[in-house]
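can u do me a favor
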C-alpha cells in the first residue's frame, strides 16, 4: 500500500500562500547553510513561528477560530473567560495590582475577563497584553476598542517585554505549547538530538545531544529503541522569568499536556509534536512552513519544578473541566433559560466541548503558580491533582 504524503492530504495553497511559504522555507534553508548544514528543531520551530513578517505568528493570516487553523477555549464559549475571571477576581481581591495576559490571540479572553471583572467591581489597575506579533497586536486593539467602553479600554496596555516587577495575575492560555522544543531520540543507550537539515526538502537528522543533563529527568530504563520525545528548556526559562518578575499574585497556565510520568511513558514513543493547518491536525512540521502552527504538549511537572526552584508555590493543578466547574461555569449556564433554545442550546454544546473528557476537558489542564497568596484557590477546591506532578 502506498502512503500518501501529508501535504497531499491538506488543502492546497493559493499562489499568494505558496509564495509566502517559499519565502519562509528559503529563509530557513539559508540559516541551515550558514550554520554548517544543521539546526536544532527548536531553531527551526522558532523561525517557522516567529520570524518577523514571515513566521506563523508574525504573518497576516487568520490563525484562530473557524476561519483559522484551530479553535481555542475563549473562541468556543465566552463562559470560559467568565469562569476564569472568577479565579482572577479572588486573587486581585487579595493582592490588588494588575492582570498580564501572555499572547492574547483574538482578544476574546481579554474582553471576557475585563467584562466580568467590571461586573464584579474588580477591574485591575491595568490589563497588560504581552504580544510578540505586531499583526495580532493590531487585531487585538481593534477588537477590544470595538467592544469595551473607553473607561475599561483605557486600562489596557500592550507590552513588548515582561515588566521588571509585577503584582496581580498572569494568564498564559495555550502559551507554553507554542514555545519551541528540542526533539530527542533514544538510540544505543544515549539521547540523540533530532535536528533539521535540507536535502531537496527539510529532513530530520540526528546528532548526539550536547547537554545530556537536559534529559536527566526522563526514566530511560523501559524506553524502546528509537523512542522520540520533546524537552523544552525555553519553557523552563519562561517560567523562571515569570517567577523573577512576580512580587505577589498568581500565574495561571491553561494548556494541554501531562505530568512527567505520563508525558514520558514508554508507550508515548512518537512524542507529542503536532501541527495545525485549517483545522487539519498532523505531525509533519516540515509542511507549509510559516503557514501552519507547530506545537508540543506541556510537561507540567517540569514547569512546576522550575517554579519551585525560583521561589514560587505550586498552588494548584487540575483538569480544565474541574477548574471551570470549580469556577462556576455550570451555574453560569444554568442562569440561561432552556426555553430560550436559540441561545441555550449553542451554549450547552460549547460548554460540553470545554468539559467533556472526549474533547478538551481532560487533555487540557490548568497549572497555578503563586507567591504570597493567603487562601486556597477557587479553581482547585475540588479535584486538585498536584500529587500527580
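np, heres the sequence
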Amino acid at each position: 500500500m502506498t502512503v500518501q504524503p501529508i501535504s497531499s492530504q491538506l488543502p492546497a495553497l493559493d499562489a499568494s500562500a505558496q509564495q509566502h511559504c517559499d519565502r519562509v522555507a528559503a529563509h530557513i534553508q539559508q540559516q541551515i547553510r550558514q550554520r554548517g548544514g544543521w539546526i536544532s528543531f527548536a531553531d527551526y520551530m522558532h523561525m517557522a513561528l516567529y520570524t518577523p513578517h514571515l513566521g506563523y505568528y508574525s504573518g497576516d493570516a487568520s490563525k484562530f477560530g473557524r476561519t483559522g487553523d484551530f479553535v481555542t477555549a475563549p473562541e468556543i464559549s465566552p463562559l470560559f473567560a467568565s469562569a476564569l475571571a472568577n479565579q482572577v477576581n479572588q486573587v486581585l481581591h487579595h493582592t490588588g495590582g494588575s492582570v498580564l495576559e501572555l499572547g492574547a490571540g483574538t482578544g476574546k479572553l481579554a474582553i471576557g475577563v475585563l467584562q466580568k471583572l467590571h461586573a464584579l467591581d474588580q477591574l485591575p489597575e491595568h490589563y497588560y497584553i504581552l504580544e510578540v506579533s505586531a499583526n495580532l497586536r493590531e487585531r487585538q486593539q481593534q477588537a477590544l476598542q470595538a467592544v469595551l467602553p473607553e473607561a475599561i479600554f483605557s486600562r489596557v496596555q500592550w507590552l513588548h517585554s515582561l515588566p521588571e516587577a509585577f503584582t496581580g495575575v498572569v494568564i498564559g492560555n495555550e502559551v507554553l505549547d507554542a514555545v519551541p522544543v528540542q526533539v530527542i531520540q533514544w538510540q544505543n543507550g544515549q539521547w540523540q538530538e533530532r535536528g533539521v537539515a535540507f536535502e531537496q526538502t527539510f529532513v530530520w537528522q540526528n546528532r548526539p545531544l550536547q547537554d545530556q543533563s537536559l534529559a536527566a529527568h526522563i526514566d530511560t530504563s523501559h524506553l524502546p529503541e528509537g523512542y522520540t520525545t520533546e524537552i523544552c528548556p525555553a519553557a523552563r526559562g519562561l517560567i523562571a522569568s515569570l517567577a523573577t518578575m512576580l512580587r505577589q499574585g498568581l500565574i495561571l497556565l491553561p494548556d494541554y499536556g501531562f505530568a512527567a510520568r505520563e508525558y514520558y511513558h514508554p508507550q508515548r514513543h512518537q512524542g507529542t509534536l503536532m501541527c495545525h493547518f485549517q483545522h487539519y491536525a498532523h505531525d509533519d512540521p516540515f509542511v507549509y512552513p510559516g503557514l501552519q502552527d507547530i506545537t508540543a504538549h506541556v510537561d507540567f511537572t517540569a514547569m512546576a519544578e522550575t517554579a519551585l526552584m525560583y521561589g514560587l508555590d505550586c498552588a494548584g493543578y487540575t483538569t480544565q473541566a474541574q477548574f471551570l466547574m470549580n469556577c462556576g461555569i455550570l451555574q453560569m449556564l444554568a442562569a440561561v433559560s432552556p426555553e430560550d433554545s436559540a441561545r441555550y442550546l449553542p451554549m450547552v454544546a460549547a460548554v460540553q466541548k470545554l468539559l467533556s473528557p472526549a474533547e478538551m476537558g481532560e487533555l487540557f489542564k490548568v497549572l497555578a503558580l503563586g507567591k504570597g497568596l493567603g487562601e486556597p484557590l477557587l479553581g482547585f477546591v475540588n479535584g486538585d491533582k498536584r500529587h500527580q506532578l
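The longest helix spans residues 15-34. hope that helps!!
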